[in-house]
Each structure stands twice: as C-alpha cells, then as structure tokens.
C-alpha cells in the first residue's frame, strides 16, 4: 500500500516552520510522496517552489509540486519546469487551474501543460480526475475522454477529486476501464474537518454528500473529540470498501489540518501491513 498527502504553502514564516515540523511527523508513515498546491496566482508559484526546497532539505520526503497553467504563457511554464527539474524535482501534478481574470483569453489546459513538460524532461506526471464530473465539463463522456487524452499525452497517474461514497469511485474506475484507461486512479480522500467548509466545497463542485454524513456531524462541535471520531468513522468506512475492492493507493487532502489526517493514515498503515 502507498499513501500520500497534500499540503498548501502557509502565508508566513512562522506557519511554514510549524508545517515543516508537522510534516516531519508524517515521515513515520513512509508516504510515497507529498504534494504542494499552487494557486493560479503567479506569486504563489514561487511560494510552492520555496516550500518544496525546504521540505526536501529539512524533511527529505519525495515532493510533487502542483503547476497550474491557465494564467501562465508557454515560456513561463517552461522556465518553471526547468527550475524544478534542475533542482531534483522529477514529478509534477499538472493542472489547468482557475482563471484569476475571467476575461483572460488564455485557452491553455492541463493537456497543454503535459505537452510542455514532456518537451522539457521526462517528468512523472500526475493529473486530476473527477469521479462526479468536472463542473465545467460538457458531460460525463466528455470528461472521461479528456482524462484519457491526458494519459495519451504522457500523464502517468491521476488523483481524483474527493468523494464521500466509495461506490462513486468504483463506478468511475469501471467507466475508465471500459474506455481503455488502465493507469493508476488514486482516490483523493478528504477527512472532514468542518461541516460548513464541506458544504462550501460541495457547492463549488459536483460532489454529493450523503445525508448520513450530515446526520452524524450536524450536532457535533467542530474540532471536538466526538466530531473527530465521527469524521474518522466516515473516512475509514470509505477506505475500507475501497481496500476490499483492491485499491492500494490513497491520497489525503490535509488542508494543513494534520491531527485528524495523521490519525486516520496511521490506523490505515497499522491495519494493512
């Protein structure tokens, strides 16, 4: 089994120092990699790069930076990719990202970024996949074909959007197989930290939240022990079904809230080794 984790760059040096310390605890879980997000804002690209360098120096964990392309031109993306490769970063999570300026005429997509990366060096490339369909996709078939084209362009593995029903992932995996996608589809797991935040995420995506989750969490105080127990139960229930169906790779969206994610991942490692 392999597990991996996503973090985002903190805003100040004190928070960065704390995050580096927290990440060090995750070394005991022997993660296959950790990924560092990058917002579409160009200044954040440099924050991602600096944090990755610090993690490699202080924590010595395999790191995968996110690169978003919609707000960059080809030359800028080539420069970013070369800088990563020259500093020993051989893996990239290639994303389109959201437009900062809605009038931006840039029509670059993740598949264009993959093509650029492949002209620079032979990166290992992760991409995003959407079991419940990308909100901007014309339809589910269009979305699946877009994922297939990303693999044909040179992507190696996909990390899925989070979901809260294991069968959602399993049906998606079957659909991918039927159209010839046999690459890794790593399920993205989001431990629930805050129910209001979860509702906000759901409103921004096509992710369905089963009523039983609200029934379990609605009357619990966030960050309380009962809330964490209920959240752990929800997450472990999803993982347990996936594991029984042969899934052996899991990617955790931590939201830089590490206690709950660490606990769930620690139990997962103990139970399955």
Summarize it.
The protein has 273 residues and is of the alpha/beta class. It has a single domain (2-271), classed as Alpha-Beta Barrel (TIM Barrel), CATH 3.20.20.220.
What is the CATH fold-level name? Answer: TIM Barrel
Spans of at least 5 consecutive residues with low confidence: none
Helical percent range? 40-55%
**Spatial separation of the terminal alpha carbons:** 8 Å
Strand element count: 8
Assign the structural class, choosing from mainly alpha, mainly beta, alpha/beta, alpha+beta, or little secondary structure. alpha/beta
Main β-sheet, in a few words? 8 strands, parallel, barrel
| Helix-strand topology string | EHEHEHEHEHEHEHHHEH
The number of domains = 1
The count of helical stretches stands at 10
Structure description:
This protein is an alpha/beta fold and 273 residues long. It has a single domain (2-271), classed as TIM Barrel. It contains ten helices and eight strands. It has helices spanning 13-26, 42-58, 74-86, 110-120, 140-153, 166-178, 195-204, 211-217, 225-244, 258-271; strands spanning 2-7, 33-36, 63-68, 91-95, 124-129, 157-162, 184-189, 249-253. The protein has an eight-stranded parallel barrel with strand order 1-2-3-4-5-6-7-8. The model has no long low-confidence stretch (mean pLDDT 91).
Supply the key terms.
TIM Barrel; 16% strand; 8-stranded parallel barrel; 49% helix; 273 residues; 10 helices; alpha/beta
Secondary structure: elements and pairs:
Elements: E1 2-7, H1 13-26, E2 33-36, H2 42-58, E3 63-68, H3 74-86, E4 91-95, H4 110-120, E5 124-129, H5 140-153, E6 157-162, H6 166-178, E7 184-189, H7 195-204, H8 211-217, H9 225-244, E8 249-253, H10 258-271
Parallel strand pairs: 1-2, 1-8, 2-3, 3-4, 4-5, 5-6, 6-7, 7-8
């Amino acid at each position: 089994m392999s597990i991996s984790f996503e973090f985002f760059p903190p805003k100040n040096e004190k928070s960065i120092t704390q995050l580096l310390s927290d990440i060090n605890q995750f070394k005991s879980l022997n993660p296959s990699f950790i990924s560092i997000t990058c917002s579409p804002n160009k200044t954040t690209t440099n924050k991602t790069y600096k944090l990755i360098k610090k993690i490699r120096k202080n924590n010595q964990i395999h790191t995968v930076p996110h690169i978003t392309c919609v707000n960059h031109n080809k030359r800028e993306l080539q420069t970013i990719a070369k800088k990563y490769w020259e500093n020993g970063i051989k893996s990239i999570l290639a994303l389109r990202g959201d437009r900062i300026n809605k009038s931006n005429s840039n029509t670059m997509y993740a598949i264009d970024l993959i093509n650029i990366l492949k002209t620079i060096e032979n990166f290992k490339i992760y991409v995003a996949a959407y079991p419940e369909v990308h909100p901007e996709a014309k339809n589910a078939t269009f979305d699946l074909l877009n994922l297939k084209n990303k693999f044909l362009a040179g992507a190696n593995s996909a990390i899925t959007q989070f979901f809260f029903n294991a069968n959602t992932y399993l049906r998606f995996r079957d659909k991918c197989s039927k159209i010839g996608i046999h690459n890794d589809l790593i399920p993205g797991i989001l431990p629930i930290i805050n129910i209001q935040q979860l509702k906000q995420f759901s409103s921004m995506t096509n992710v369905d939240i089963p009523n039983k989750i609200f029934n379990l969490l609605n009357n619990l105080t966030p960050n309380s022990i009962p809330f964490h127990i209920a959240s752990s139960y929800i997450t472990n229930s999803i993982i347990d079904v996936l594991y029984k169906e042969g899934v052996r790779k899991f990617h955790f969206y931590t939201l830089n809230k590490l206690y709950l994610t660490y606990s769930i991942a620690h139990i997962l490692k103990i139970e399955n080794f």
